[in-house]
Structure formats: C-alpha cells, structure tokens
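Quick illustration, no need to memorize.
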Amino acid sequence: MGDVSPPAQTHPAATQALLAKLGPQVVLTDEAACFAASFDNMRLSFMPEAVVRPATEEDIGVTLKLANDHRVPVTVRGRGTGTTGACAPIKGGWVIHLDHWDKIEIDPVSAMATVQPGAITAHINDLAAPHGLFFPPDPSSVKHCSIGGNIATNAGGLRAAKYGVVRDHVYALEGFLPTGEKVRWAAPLRKFVSGLNLRDLWIGSEGTLGVITKATIKLSVLPAARRTFLLAFRTDEAALEAAIDLISQRVNPSVLEFLDIQTVAATEKRRGQRVFTDAELSGSAETHAALLVEIDGHPAVLADDAAKVLAWAKRHAVAFRAPEDPTEAEALWELRRTCSQAMFALGDAKLNEDVVVPIRSYVALLRFTREIRDRFGLATPTFGHAADGNFHVHIMYDRFNPEHCRKAEQAIREVMEKVVELGGAITGEHGIGLAKSPFLTLQHTPAEIGAMLAIKKALDPNGILAPGQIFEPFNVWEHRPIKVTLPWDKH
C-alpha cells in the first residue's frame, strides 16, 4: 500500500468549532474523504484532520480566519494532478478542496473566460472552441487538471514556446489572503497598472500566498489549421541538434517534443510495437530518438512553414512521417502521451524533474544524463519541450531497494547541480512543492530566499497556508508512495 500517515488530531477543538460553523456537509472528517485529499500525483500521503468543501466564498473566509485563530495548517487542493506534492497536507490540518468550483463563462467578444479554480482546463477549450477561441497553455494532464492548479504552478505544457505559460494568459484573480480577507488582483481588462502587481505574485506561488476563487483568463484565436510531423534519429545528439537547427530557421512550431532513445524504447515496450518499422529505418532494428513537431496557423502561412519543416526533416531524420489527414496526425501523439507511464518499464519508482536549460546546453544535459545512467546503473529516460529547453529528466529505481534509493538520491542531486551549472532552472512548470525543496538553495541565494520568506510572512503572518512546502527540505526518496489508480493512469 505504501506509506500512509495517520490523521494527526492535533487541533480537535478547532475542527469541532469549524464543524459547528459550517456543518458536516461542508466539513468532512471521515477517513475516506481525508485519504482522498492526502496526496497528489506524486502519491505520498499525509492525512489531514478535515476536508472543507466550501459551498460559498464565506465558507472559505470562515475557514481561514478560524485557522489563524487556532494556528491550524491549511492546504488548498484542486484536482490533484500535480507531480511535486504541492497540495499534499504534509503538516496535517485542514484541506480546502475546490474541485467542485468549476463554473466557466466565455466572453467571445472580449476573448476572455471567467473561471472558477476547479474548472478542468480541457473543458475551457471545449466551451471556447465554438467561438473560434482557445486557452493555449497545454499541460499533458489537460484533460484532468484544473485551472486553479495551472495558475498556482504557472503551468506551461507542450505549446509554451509559441504561446507562453499560464502567467501570459491571466488578466485578473480573486480570492482570499491567508488571513481570510477577500481580495481582487487586477480586473477583467486588457490593461491594468493600478498599485503593485500582486496578481503575478500569486501566479506560481503554489498555494502558499492565497486561495484563488475566480480567474479571468485570456483566450486566443483558434488556429485554422495544423500539421504534425514525427521524426526518427539515430542518436539523441542528432535529434537535439536538429531541433536547434529548426529553431534557428525562425520556424516557430507550436510543439517541438524530444524523446531520447531510452524513452522511445520504454514506450515501444509499453505499446508492444515499434514506432517506425525496420523498413522505414532502412532495415535497422536499433531503437531511435524522436522529435514530434506541430505547426499551426493560417493555411497559407502553414503551407510555407510545412515546406520548410519537410525540407528540414529530409536533411536530418533517418525516417519521418508527415500525414496531412488529421486522424493520422492524431495517432502520432500516442507516442508522446504514453511516455510518462512507459517509464515504469524501467523501474517501479521515479524521480521526475522538469528542468530547463539554455539552447546551447541541450546536448550537454543529455550527455550528462547518460553519464549518470552508466555511473549509477539507473535508467535516465528524458523527454520534453525542446522548443523552450524544458526537459523532464527521470531517475528510475526500485523503491524497495535501499541501494537504489541511495543511488537515486545522489543521481538526482548531481543532475540538479549540473542544470544550475549549465545556466538552467530546477523547474520550468511543475513548481517546487516537496519534490524539489532540497534543491532550492542550488538555484537561489540566501538573500533571494530571504526575500521570498519575507513576502510569505507579510501575507501569511501565522504561517497557516501550505506550511512545509517549498522552503523546508523534504527527501522524497525516503518515503514510499501509496498504490492507487488515478483517472489519468490509463493514458
């Protein structure tokens, strides 16, 4: 089953007071409700004392004010798709669960949407599409994740290089300070510069600075056409050098995904078939690296870009596919969608770090991951967004093998040190949470961390919101994940 921490009843009087104020329909204390709110996709469980499912905004204010009075830890939760443990209530206390706050209103004239934090990101696009609009940020969990979580982590996704990250698409936020006061940052306007920009301070703060109850987001014009290309390369280096060449030609792909040889091999094993046939690979049975490319836009512009991509593919790839039929193009995405789960063919546990490096360091990073693989004897499959340098480096290991755990700990630290040495970032879209907290000091100086903590103290003087996250080192490899099947596991 893994490690499940029992609910620590450290604030029974406060929980009873909360029940008395909001009632048992809002405040849940049964074991099933608490367990369901105790973990995210990292699957480390920390049981809360109560789960608050607010019916009104007033319920949120009451919860936060009572939490401050009694110094009860509070964690905010959406759909639980995050991968760093950021919504796991590591200090117990109460969870404010907002997955049922999922209203979506589309304003097609202003090209905006007003959304509640529990709205599933894909559902926003479902409602925007009939108006010729869409919300560009595209996390791989788009069919399951909520917009509140996207905002809390400043999510990016596959289309970030062309369309930007979530911060680039948020006009205004409403919600509560940790102390329980209602606030609104900016307004549903295209321009707003009144006062300090605390809206952007909330974006990417991982639920540590406030509770989002409503967001006004920017929608973009839905591209009229798309083309998808899948390319095979003999080596990881050849694939990355080809990606750099495409970027240098000023072709601006909406998607440029890299899959190293280890990733393609694991994916082929999971799918039970080769990505490219031996005939397509000129009779070679060797596993290959891959690039998945998508371009979008007006058909006239797309035709010109498609010609450039085809010429580029012929120069660099040992094999490629460029279907014009949308159904055939959609089938190419199966390779990328199965990457995450395919990793478990290489180990029963993984440390997954969404690092970012400059373009000049792509090849150096991949070579270093292979060096780590060879030196520690642990698989290091790497895939991700080659258009913006945001790669997902995995260390695969056996959670029940103490030697594997020791090696995984050392290996991931060396990867993070290398990333910073290369001028990169320890996270590009997942955030810090618990998973990356041991590496925060690699990225930031004491002065920088001190400034962050000063802001946290100013907004959350009693330290009740998401305590234990980001700033307190937590060693993931010392804990066993729980065994649960989540809705996205089958994808």
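The CA atoms of residues 10 and 91 lie 10 Å apart.
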